[in-house]
Amino acid sequence: MNIKKNDQAVRRHAARLAAATALLVAASGASLALSARGAAPAVTEADPALERTREQVKMLDDLYKNAVVSITKRYVGAQDKQPAIMVAQDVFGAMKKQGWHSAKLVDATGDPLGPDNAPQTDFEKDAARAMNAGKPYFDRVVGEGEDRRLLAATLVPAVMQQCADCHGKKVGDVLGFIRYDLKVK
């Protein structure tokens, strides 16, 4: 009787092992098929430093965008035509000067307000296409080792009527994006 129970346990274990192996082979095949088409494999290694840097981009983006909306609501109107994003650009410059990160407002309409706002790098051109295709976030890791950086772009739509009026757009239309460049650490 004891041998019979042991034999059944071995068979159950063998069946589980066979099922797990079949799943692993199937997953590997799917991953290889995705790689052959140029898509990223379904399973990637965790990269805590990269995820921390992406979280930092989200925090900075919330900070900058909330500040611009708050300044616009409080100070931009009949008394002042200076757009609040100009204040954000001053902050971008201060952050870069202190060595924290680089941020830049980039046009995605095809009609920039100035030449400095036009997409200039390959990343900025790719990000403009992504934003116009409906993606609110786009990023790319560049460099290796200690020189690794995260380039990220976050959508800037016309969120208020003042924005839409100044840019000749409707509320909700894509205006551009903020391009971030942060060291991955």
Please explain how this structure is put together.
This protein has 5 helices and 4 strands, in the order αααβαββαβ. The protein is α+β, with helices and mostly antiparallel strands and 185 residues long. The chain has 2 domains: 44 residues, no CATH class; 136 residues, Beta-Lactamase (2-Layer Sandwich), CATH 3.30.450. The chain has a 4-stranded antiparallel sheet with strand order 1-4-3-2, with helices on both faces. A hairpin with a 6-residue loop joins strand 2 and strand 3. It starts with a helix and ends with a strand.
Query: Looking at this structure, what is the CATH superfamily of the largest domain?
Result: PAS domain
Low-confidence stretches: 1-43
Helical proportion?
40-55%
What is the fold named in CATH at topology level of the largest domain?
Answer: Beta-Lactamase
Please tell me what the overall shape is: globular
Mean pLDDT: 78
**Separate helix tally:** 5
CATH architecture label of the largest domain = 2-Layer Sandwich
Report on the biggest sheet: 4 strands, antiparallel
Sketch the topology as an H/E string, one letter per element. HHHEHEEHE
Beta-strand content? 15-25%
Multimeric status of the protein: single chain
